[in-house]
Amino acid sequence: MDVTSSSGGGDPRQIEETKPLLGSDVSGPEGTKVMGAVPCRRALLLCNGMRYKLLQEGDIQVCVIRHPRTFLSKILTSKFLRRWEPHHLTLADNSLASATPSGYMENSVSYSAIEDVQPLSWENAPKYCLQLTIPGGTVLLQAANSYLRDQWFHSLQWKKKIYKYKKVLSNPSRWEVVLKEIRTLVDMALTSPLQDDSINQAPLEIVSKLLSENTNLTTQEHESIIVAIAPLLENNHPPPDLCEFFCKHCRERPRSMVVIEVFTPVVQRILKHNMDFGKCPRLRLFTQEYILALNELNAGMEVVKKFIQSMHGPTGHCPHPRVLPNLVAVCLAAIYSCYEEFINSRDNSPSLKEIRNGCQQPCDRKPTLPLRLLHPSPDLVSQEATLSEPRLKSVVVASSEVHVEVERTSTAKPALTASTGNDSEPNLIDCLMVSPACGTMSIELGPQAGRTLGCHVEILKLLSDYDDWRPSLASLLQPIPFPKEALAHEKFTKELKYVIQRFAEDPRQEVHSCLLSVRAGKDGWFQLYSPGGVACDDDGELFASMVHILMGSCYKTKKFLLSLAENKLGPCMLLALRGNQTMAEILCLMLEYNIIDNNDTQLQIISTLESTDVGKRMYEQLCDRQRELKELQRKGGPTRLTLPSKSTFGDAGLRLLSEHLTMLQVLNLCETPVTDAGLLALSSMKSLCSLNMNSTKLSADTYEDLKAKLPNLKEVDVRYTEAW
Q1: Residue-wise pLDDT tens digits, 25-52
Q2: Which of 492, 518, 636, 658 has its CA 20 to 30 Å from the CA of residue 330?
């Protein structure tokens, strides 16, 4: 019977569906052919441009007619034999059921019992009806309009076919037939007019279950199945079991062309659209194995680098915001896996606390001078929080080198060698000395773990080279999200040093501020890569770079200097002795801001500065500034002072001005947070001729009082105040 129907106003077309479900004819009783198991001619309803949402449930009119097949046409045309019932039907995974099982739908209709689904469109047929052929009868479904009828038609067809494919592919016999059925299943999903996530996910889940239950496939069968389902993966994430299958293929055949041609767009889509690897960890594992497979190719990291470039894009800004955090998540998980053996077996790998508390072998060679470890470094941002554990690893400096530098300084200033017994203030030797060469915990990774570590650390390096990614990367790495065993591994910290160096070189505060610890009481990259820190393997060059960039933008300069003086004074002086200009500048600022209270320590700093040309020059400039300041104070201070707009100079500071700058003639306090309490102190500045109090919290009474007490005041600006 040829059936046609209109749908949504479009011209209907008939196409022949001749693709078998099993690839062979299956005969039924008395030589009849079973519907759905043989090639058949059936009119499919396809509409130009029409798309439908997959129905899971809905309201529809139902009529069930029981009849022998020979009287079908007569019964269908007999209107008086038909009675319609309203039902809310649910399209479950294996049957069509009613929410109120009664009447025609007292029992659900299994998809396996539905022989055919057809729209009715002949003359005198009920409008907007579907015919479901079942053994011994017919189920008629009547929708409200043609669009709903077509939506029910395609949804029922989809549910029926998916159910059959699940049954067929659950018991495979010949894999060449199975592969053919998989291709047919994929084609069905790609050509379906239904729009729903499950349209592509359902075939993937069927194939995923098939592969998980049949692990004895050959490599060729692996690749054939992957190629067959590839079109479905262009717009869908693979399910967990399929990810595991892909991981296995990447590990066993990393050089297969399937990895490049099929997996690349899949991984690209995962990195661009995945929102949380925590909910789908196998997607992250698949991405990790794919990257390792790329690294196994002849070009190795060059291929990985090109892949990262393709993910970033050719422009200066990556258009996909999820790419960077997803790549970082993959790298962090991969690096963690490299040390998992040590993490799970603490007996073989001392904890970080044990390492810090002395799990180090003492040096057999005695140093020329008594050396000791530096004081533990508290958090850079807070002086109040101190760490209870010393540094993991100290800077290795040849004791002969230190001895020469200390000897030279001691010769220049013999009076500076204070007693070493006083621990309240470190003497010159204590400040300059770092620990001699000491053995630390040895971590040896296996070949595969070593390759995994090297590959993913290189990816972090590549990510740090992109200017637009660097702020987010610095923020993601600021909490130091690596296991302590990794931080105790010299190879890892040495390789990661490049990334930290990139952060230290970036002039943007949002980047280099991430070198500091994320909260009080916790180490940051600044501490780990500073002399005496776990990761410091140089003579302090990176430390000097970090100090230089942080001093250039730190808005709490004095607090920063206080932290350096408390915890890193020795390294600062040692680097200054070697001619480092940044450290010489730091020492001068410590003297200028009166950071150091102890006179002996001040003399040690002065001696250090005078030991090099650059330090001596800076110290002389500091002395010149100090002499000029004292001369200015002797003369009564400056005569003109303008504070910057929105300045934090408040009432307390204004009182200090009135005490020390009594000869001031012009003062601009515009838009500063001063109040009457501070402004009243200006009454002692009798030389004031011009006073700007625009946009301050000046009251009318205070203004009148100031005018009475400042006889020389000629120009006053009180706009946008209460006195205006």
Answers
A1: 333 333 333 223 333 333 334 444 689 9
A2: 518
Q: Find out whether 459 and 312 touch, Cβ atoms under 8 Å.
A: no
Q: How confident is the model at residue 23 (pLDDT cuts 50, 70, 90)?
A: very low
- With a CB cutoff of 8 Å and minimum separation 6, the contacts of 213 are 170
Task: State whether the Cα torsion 557-559-562-567 is positive or negative.
Answer: negative
Of residues 408 and 689, more confidently modeled: 689
Would you tell me how many other CB atoms lie within 10 Å of the CB of residue 496? 24
What contacts 573, CB < 8 A, 6 or more positions away? 431, 432, 583, 587, 604, 605, 608
CA 550 to chain centre: 24
The per-residue DSSP string of 179-191 comes to: HHHHHHHHHHHHH
Q: What is the pLDDT of residue 534?
A: 86
Distance CA 100, CA 107 (A): 10
Beta bridge partners of 605: none
CB 237, CB 274: distance < 8 Å? yes
φ, ψ of residue 594 to 5 degrees: the values are 55, 45
Report the pLDDT value the prediction gives residue 356, as an integer from 0 to 100: 36
DSSP per-residue codes, 443-501 = ----HHHHHHHHHHHHHHHHHHT-TTTHHHHHHHHTT--S-HHHHT-HHHHHHHHHHHH
Mean pLDDT value across residues 71-76: 56
Closest CA to 288 of 322, 237, 337, 240: 337
Residue-averaged pLDDT of the chain: 78
Cα–Cα distance, 158 to 565 (Å, whole number):
73
Q: What share of the chain is helix, strand, coil (3-state, %, to 5)?
A: 50, 10, 40
Rounded to an integer, what is the distance from CA 208 to the centroid of its chain? Answer: 29
d(Cα 710, Cα 37) in Å, to the nearest integer? 108
Q: How confident is the model over 79-99, as pLDDT tens digits?
A: 545 688 999 999 999 999 999
Q: Tell me the pLDDT tens digit for each residue of 193-222.
A: 998 888 988 999 999 888 888 878 888 888
State the chain's maximal CA–CA distance in angstroms.
125
Q: What is the pLDDT of residues 425-452, one digit of tens each?
A: 333 323 333 333 333 457 889 999 999 9
Look up tokens 């990262």; give the residue: 308
In sequence order, what are the residues at sequence separation of 6 or more whose Cβ sits closer than 8 angstroms to the Cβ of residue 407?
none
Give residues with Cβ within 8 angstroms of 215, minimum separation 6. none
